[in-house]
């Protein structure tokens, strides 16, 4: 949310960000989160407000924006907003009608959903500004909303920053010494003296009282020095302020850190000894990190003990595949193989078909049975046999709940009831989750993440050979595709990784190294690494294997 006034200062920066987001939505192949920028404006202080009146609501209003800004005169709405809330207090040509309303809106947005709020963390950003910024900061603190003060931008921001930095705790209050109070008074007089804020005036007393209110909650105030030499960015300061919000749970804090791509803050401020994490609560964050290609977060989660085998179920992996964008290679090639629409739901049986089409091999049972047909019950029965228990497993419940049209007839009562034994399903977790996530990353063109999962997987050589083969075929199939060069580069990278591992193993133990390349892998249809390399014409890997064999 922002003020409505003509684009300048903070409004100009926010407006530019909104414009860039709108352009990205038009030109990007990837899904881009839409930014909504809400302007709160005083109706009586809005220039050309009569043009906004639409009595029947059946036609669009043409509103002309003027960039002229005159003191104590209405101004145009800032065009770089997506929505406006216009506040009418019955007064004309008077600024400030929105001042009391704004904190109520922010508080409602900030409240947890269980308290009838939106559960969206809110922070007030103060850059420069007049008395209205001091009022807004005071209101924010009173509503327990954190504020970030950009010191060095002048006027109101510098006044609040000065008071905050020099305040001392005396009893239950934070106060300024007489010396610092005199300096504060001089600064206010220098900034706003032309508006009547001079020493010993009622206006001066009022503004000092408001500044004092701004600094009472020390933990809700973050000062960022815009002129300093710190390596920290403004986004770091804003995120730290958001993390201070009392309404923010540890999981919400982690989601914020993910959104801001700040794994460093997640590590130092969230994943610490003060919170006893139930790792299953982080599964949604792991999914987000995968989708957003945030390898540093995945590394952090693993470092702190997340077990990926418990995380990755059939339903979870299927969900990851269905986040592929409409124009991605995965959806385009899937549509070509099965004559489906780009937005049709993807099942793991579709993925098995794609991998087989690319390299001629893929054989993982849990992929085969994940399909549209009601015969998916085969998956349940197979898994229950693997489980050998009569306990309903959370992975099975998740699987049954992910597609209502698929499992509408599968119940636990009546003539079509499934037995408890059929529902028991620990087998719906993958034996090698990193390998499955590795394949997902390759097919979704997330090559940095693919390399991360490859390093964590068990079968380094065969997986690297398979990835090189898949990417080579992807480049051949989609000549002149936007990502053709990326496919080719990725194929070369995984080819080199396979060769490097073969060389390292050969230098360590020649016999075991030979067994490694000769070993057949059931997941690749019983083929070994050399066979896969030969079928896709990878001469470098074949040559390396032959060279190692001759040196034995």
From TrEMBL:
Transcription in keyword set: no
Keywords: Ion channel, Ion transport, Membrane, Receptor, Transmembrane, Transmembrane helix, Transport
InterPro entries, per the entry: TRPM, TRPM-like, TRPM_SLOG
Cytoplasm in keyword set: no
Location (main, coarse): membrane
Domain of life: Eukaryota
Pfam families associated with the record: LSDAT_euk (PF18139), TRPM2 (PF25508)
Membrane topology listed for this record: Multi-pass membrane protein
Name of the protein: Putative transient receptor potential cation channel subfamily M member 1 isoform X1
